[in-house]
Amino acid sequence: MNTKEIEKFYESNRWKKTSQGRGSYKNTLAAITQYSLPYIPTSGCIFELGPGPGTWTKVLLQQAPNVSYDLVDISSEMLSQAKAALPPSADISLIHSDILDFVPTKQYDYFFSSRMIEYVPEKNIAVQRIAKAMKQGAQGFIITKTPQYSRPFSKRLSSPIHQLQITDEALVKLFVENGISVKKVVLVAAVFPGLRNGVLDRLLTIILSPLPFSVSRLLSESYGLVLLKE
């Protein structure tokens, strides 16, 4: 399958095709419901980085349908899919840009991003762009993949794209250095070692979620940072 085909069927392949994908979707939705949706403003504008086909934009819209949204994605195909998936009545602007080249023309009331930052080589620049885009007092939630090398029950991946994954400690440091407080580091999805079973992954995530991430990290697939620009 070539890159265009992967993008075309991204949402189905990522979240629906396998048991583990379906479990990951439920875990991610639960984390967004707990750590993002309650803090989305009822007015203003939301900046979503890497919306893909609009999977989570739809969830944000259900919570805040009257807020305007700026969706920034490096893939024109993903933005086309998002446009087709989202209601035409929604106040949404689609911005085709690499985050490293993105220059915000305004500041935002809320920031959201899921599973995008791990693909950015210059994370310090990306975080600078995010911090600049957030208003004083704005909150946010960012989700990213837990690096394989920090999980003792996973095999180290040699693919260059997976080597761009970043630990929670390193990502927290970047945000703090750029004036963004990290209120909490949370488990988004855990993986039951070796079984590729979404039901078990969901159960494990529920069990581990109340624990500090320093503990749940060992079995985590992804984590999130709750952000605040004070």
Q: How helical, in percent, are the residues?
A: 25-40%
Given helix and strand content, the structural type is alpha/beta
Give the termini distance in whole angstroms. 45 Å
Kindly give the count of domains: 1
CATH class placement: Alpha Beta
Tell me how many strands there are: 7
Q: State the CATH architecture.
A: 3-Layer(aba) Sandwich
Major sheet description: 7 strands, mixed
Shape: globular
Question: Order of SSEs, N→C?
Answer: HHHEHEHEEHEHEHHE
Q: Mind telling me the C-alpha Rg?
A: 17 Å
Beta fraction: 15-25%
Q: What is the assigned CATH homologous superfamily? A: Vaccinia Virus protein VP39
CATH topology: Rossmann fold
Mean pLDDT: 90
Question: Care to describe what's here?
Answer:
The chain is an alpha/beta fold and 230 residues long. It has one domain: 3-Layer(aba) Sandwich (Rossmann fold). Helices cover 36% and strands 23% of the residues. The chain contains 9 helices and 7 strands; from the N terminus they run H-H-H-E-H-E-H-E-E-H-E-H-E-H-H-E. It has helices at residues 3-8, 10-16, 19-35, 57-63, 76-85, 123-133, 168-177, 198-208, 213-216, and strands at 45-49, 68-73, 92-96, 108-114, 134-145, 181-190, 220-228. The protein has a 7-stranded mixed β-sheet. The longest helix has 17 residues, at 19-35.
Topology at a glance:
Elements: H1 3-8, H2 10-16, H3 19-35, E1 45-49, H4 57-63, E2 68-73, H5 76-85, E3 92-96, E4 108-114, H6 123-133, E5 134-145, H7 168-177, E6 181-190, H8 198-208, H9 213-216, E7 220-228
Parallel strand pairs: 1-2, 1-4, 2-3, 4-5
Antiparallel strand pairs: 5-7, 6-7
Helix pairs in contact: 2-3, 3-8
